[in-house]
Amino acid sequence: MFHYSLRVAFTYRDLEILTIIKILHLTNVYFLAGLCAYVVLLQSNRFHVIHSIIKNGFYNYPEGLTQEQMLIRSKANHKWSKEYNGWIPFVVDSWAKYFLSQFYHLMAALSAALLGGSVCIVFIAIAEHLLAQLEILCISFRNAIGFIPAPGDRVGEKLAYQRVKSCLQHHNIILKFFDEFQKYYSIPLFCMLAGTTVAMCTIAFVVTDPSSTFGVSAAFLSLMAPEVAFCICYCTYGQKITDMSDILRDTVYNAPWYYQPKPVKMALLMALNKTRTPMTLSAAGLKDCSIKSIGEITQTTYTYFNALQLFRGKPAYHRE
């Protein structure tokens, strides 16, 4: 990150705005990768909580899981051209120095790419476990509510209440898991969404510049592809979690509660209160991760791109 920004700081009077934008794009990529790494490391204790909940199977029902629920959990368990060298403290005037500088670039690029990919893969794995548990809970609620004891059957009423109570206990664990998941990925999600907006804006500026060659445009478009793919992945899984929590709410709401004894009705009312607000992943509490966010990011990118067009063709030292 400093490697690229130092070039702008030391030689900005000799650079065109297009070159500065290209360098700032790479600086943005490395800055966000480093920030994500720091936050993930800082929140490592939350990851241990998430891992322990997954390892313990979330919740063990007294009567066990059905074959359908076991299959859902099993599936979740198995998902887991031109270069800009920046500033360096020596002049590249020999093959040895050239290979040394290129090796540094290669290691830095690989580190950023592996970090971004690893954070995304872990996110998908955790999200899949959460989705699987929500689906299992929906089935458990349907099975529990479908059991209607006969009037005056005290044993049956107690059994019906115990089944709904088990569902509530399972839901409490899922809520705790989601809370840890949200806090663990809050800042990385914000970095990814904000970084994608900046990246798309700078890349659009580079690609549409009249002086850009096909090689430069192709290189920057290839850089944009994984960033946009990560953004779509995060927003898509955020939407899936919200949709699945809505299904859980509808399952409880549409239950034939009027046939159940009073203790079961009270338990269902508590479940309805807890599922009233859908689970929504947010980026630092500023933006929700959903399909709608993809359109908002595109609109914001277009706005900033039009503002950046004002500087096109101006040397760095002429900017006010």
TrEMBL record:
GO terms of molecular function: odorant binding; olfactory receptor activity
Q: Which GO terms describe its biological process?
A: signal transduction
* Membrane-spanning ranges: 20-41, 103-127, 184-208, 214-237
- On whether Transmembrane helix is a keyword of this UniProt record, the answer is yes
Tell me where it resides: Cell membrane
Q: Which UniProt keywords apply?
A: Cell membrane, Membrane, Olfaction, Receptor, Sensory transduction, Transducer, Transmembrane, Transmembrane helix
Which protein, by its recorded name, is this?
Answer: Odorant receptor
Q: Which organism is it from?
A: Apolygus lucorum
